[in-house]
Backbone:
């Protein structure tokens, strides 16, 4: 693959609450470019040498952690591994959904905010021409947002998250050395260390994702694009709200939280289908819905 054959990217904005700015879920989807044809036997690269994994240390470590964590979820019920997995899943549900969305961006294949400086000569000229054609659509529901509002809310998101995740990275990196004494405990792994290291890494990934989007915004590469299909999310939620009167014995806080939301779990199904979300994205949307409900309940 030539250095300037980047993938495509689209962003979908799904407001969850009323207000200016609203709480909104952003779905960042990167489509990788077509794989290059395999090299001819004459030009095939020589076998790799050394102990480093072919995909790189970072990807290898990430895959290893994901595989280990999944195996703990399949451990015997009641075992310490399964209990740690259950606790970890509850912690994941409390991590800001915005963090999960930003760190999910595939920056390796996403359109870059600028032409890579390492390219020179004819290769750079071709890259500049290809980069000039880049447009990242920002899909939004036109009955809920206008094009300027969609851009403004996305800009507000990255401007808020960049300093937050920057602090998160350094906070957890400073805490990591304090977890060293737990390494002396036999058999059970140093869970405090792994938790702090994971939180630092998660903040770092979200920070890089936010900076990437910020760069695209500043370069004028993100273009608002109305998607009328998304309006169905709010039309369905409105009809459901009109049909279901609030229960008389419902708590005041729950009633306020419900009235602040402009979507329902059921109506979000329209967005999931229209945006062709996978299982992981669907899980993140529902997590965002639950967190938005909790935030509005706390604010009230």
Residues:
């Amino acid at each position: 693959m030539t250095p300037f054959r980047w993938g495509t990217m689209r962003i979908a904005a799904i407001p969850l609450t009323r207000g200016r700015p609203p709480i909104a879920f952003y779905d960042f989807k990167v489509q990788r470019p077509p794989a290059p044809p395999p090299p001819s036997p004459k030009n095939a690269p020589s076998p790799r040498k050394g102990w480093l994994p072919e995909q790189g240390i970072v990807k290898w470590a990430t895959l290893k952690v994901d595989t280990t964590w999944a195996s703990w979820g399949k451990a015997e019920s009641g075992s310490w591994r399964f209990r740690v997995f259950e606790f970890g899943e509850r912690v994941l549900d409390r991590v800001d959904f915005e963090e999960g969305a930003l760190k999910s961006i595939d920056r390796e294949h996403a359109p870059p905010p600028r032409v890579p400086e390492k390219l020179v000569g004819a290769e750079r000229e071709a890259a500049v021409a290809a980069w000039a054609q880049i447009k990242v659509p920002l899909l939004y529901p036109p009955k809920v947002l206008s094009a300027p509002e969609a851009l403004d809310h996305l800009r507000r998101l990255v401007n808020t998250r960049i300093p937050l995740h920057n602090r998160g990275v350094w906070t957890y990196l400073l805490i990591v050395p304090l977890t060293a004494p737990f390494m002396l405990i036999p058999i059970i792994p140093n869970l405090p260390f792994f938790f702090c290291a994971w939180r630092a890494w998660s903040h770092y990934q979200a920070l890089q994702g936010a900076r990437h989007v910020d760069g695209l915004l500043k370069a004028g590469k993100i273009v608002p694009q109305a998607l009328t299909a998304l309006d169905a999310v709010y039309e369905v939620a409105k009809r459901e709200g009109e049909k279901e009167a609030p229960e008389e014995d419902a708590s005041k806080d729950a009633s306020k939280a419900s009235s602040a939301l402009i979507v329902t779990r059921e109506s979000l199904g329209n967005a999931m289908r229209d945006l062709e979300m996978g299982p992981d994205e669907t899980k993140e949307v529902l997590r965002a819905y639950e967190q938005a409900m909790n935030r509005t309940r706390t604010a009230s």
